[in-house]
Amino acid sequence: MSSLTEKDRPIVQLLLNTGTCPRCILRFCCVGSQMLYRHPHKDLMKDLQEFLKSNQEKEDTVCLDVADPPCKRSRLEPRGEGAEDLSHNGAIPQVPSADDGNAAMESSAGKVCNVCLGILQEFCEADFVKKMCQKVNSADYQFTSFVFSVSLPPQLSVRERAAWLGVKQQMRNLGLPLAKDDIVQLKEAYKWIIHPQLSEELGVPADGKSLFEVSVVFSHPETEEECHFLATACPDCFKPAKNKQSVFTRMAVIKALEKIKEEDFLKHFPCPPSSPKNLCDALEIQCNNGAVFVAGRYNKYSRNLPQTPWIIDGERKLESSVEELISEHLMAEFKADSFNFSSSGREDVDVRTLGNGRPFAIELVNPRRIRFTVEEMKRLQQAINDSSDKIQVRDLQLVTRSAIGRMKEGEEEKTKTYSALIWTDKAIQREDIAFLDDIKELKLDQKTPLRVLHRRPLAMRCRLIHTMKSEFIDEHHFRLHLKTQAGTYIKEFVHGDFGRTKPNIGSLLNRTADILELDVESVDVDWPPSLAD
């Protein structure tokens, strides 16, 4: 049972007298009934008035008997503190009588709460909920549930501490015990009120595991003014950060409140807190959908197309890339903000990828549309393929974030098959290259190639050429089919990279060799699952 009892009477009277709203009073009395917080503001004021009028010996309740889950609590001071008396340039106000409490309620009915700064007042009303829902609906997201989050002005923690110190002193003056040093969190109480209203307006349930988030960011113009004394008392807690507009973040303020001594706090902040000059402002109402992941395999048929945008010193070298040719269609259909492209390895700009293609995955960030049928994915795949003759995709499908890990698992242990067109300076005959077919599991020592040294660390890598098969063309050209360990630099294996790859085709044939064309014929990663045509 969640209830107000006789022991709560002094707390109710003091907080009402100092300008605290009914819902914050319930929080300070540790009332855990979610239904009670949803009652209209005027009804709660009336209930509290009736409570104060009731016989002091009658331990009755003014709220509904509702079986609610345990609520989260905010601890307002460390354990073990509070033995000494508190003061702030004078005495704490005496407990008002019931008549005084009624007068306080009448005078404060239209005022901004001195603890929550109006969040549990105006921002719980139906008009504000409708404003949030209009923002959500206008953003045109697909969702079947939602999770609600709220960001609060940092000085709320300061005002809660000040109100609590006032309550603690009042109870001590009356010789009454105060067993608890925590209250119902403002965020939790706010969600108790907002969740059913949002759910009704949006037509979907609230779900803590939902990927669709509706968030409200509250701000207050007096944040820096009210928190400034903490920066003086605890300067180590407030350090500038590049991505923060103010040093007075919620976590910094909480850290400072844990460090500051009570006597120092009381010297600089009124307890109970004074009425604020302004109401909070709902700075932002935001929506965000969890990322959607699309996977498939791509073939690249052009020898003048990079996998990702080719930009050097801010200058674009080629007009497009595999990544862009695929992602532009996905971005448009999923209506996403941005994307992240990944693949099982990569090919050079002048290398084709043939066979079954190379596995890839794209993370679509904050998509508006998230539901696609199998037929719709097939049509999307066809649209990509019709848009360019440089690439083709297959097996396009929705996947989970965890499934993408399979693309990278054991990447260097996987095998890849290549076809290389090779030139030699000295004339060759068919029998000069036949011995290559008999070489198995050839071990290479490959120092980081000169051509990638600007973006890869200098290292010696051991790689394997599992098999080779030669195909004689003429006295200066032959084609070599190779099955290698993933991560092998094929071009360097052919020409030797000035001795940085040993052995190499040039050293094996005892002549200068170079590579004219290279094709990836297969990437042996069994992912994503193949789909029927």
UniProtKB/TrEMBL annotation:
Substrates-to-products reaction catalysed: uridine(55) in tRNA = pseudouridine(55) in tRNA; uridine(54) in tRNA = pseudouridine(54) in tRNA
Principal place of residence: cytoplasm
GO cellular component: mitochondrion; nucleus
Record domain Pus10-like C-terminal: where: 293-524
InterPro entries: PsdUridine_synth_cat_dom_sf (IPR020103), Pus10-like (IPR039894), Pus10-like_C (IPR048741), Pus10_N_euk (IPR048742)
Location of the Pus10 N-terminal eukaryotes domain: 113-287
Pfam family, one: Pus10_N_euk
Any GO molecular function: RNA binding
Swiss-Prot/TrEMBL keywords: Coiled coil, Cytoplasm, Isomerase, Metal-binding, Mitochondrion, Nucleus, tRNA processing, Zinc
Cellular localization per UniProt: Cytoplasm; Mitochondrion; Nucleus
GO biological-process terms attached to the record: tRNA pseudouridine synthesis
Enzyme Commission numbers on file: 5.4.99.25
Enzyme class: isomerase
Similarity comment: Belongs to the pseudouridine synthase Pus10 family.
NCBIfam families: pseudo_Pus10arc
Protein name: tRNA pseudouridine synthase Pus10
Species the sequence originates in: Chaetops frenatus
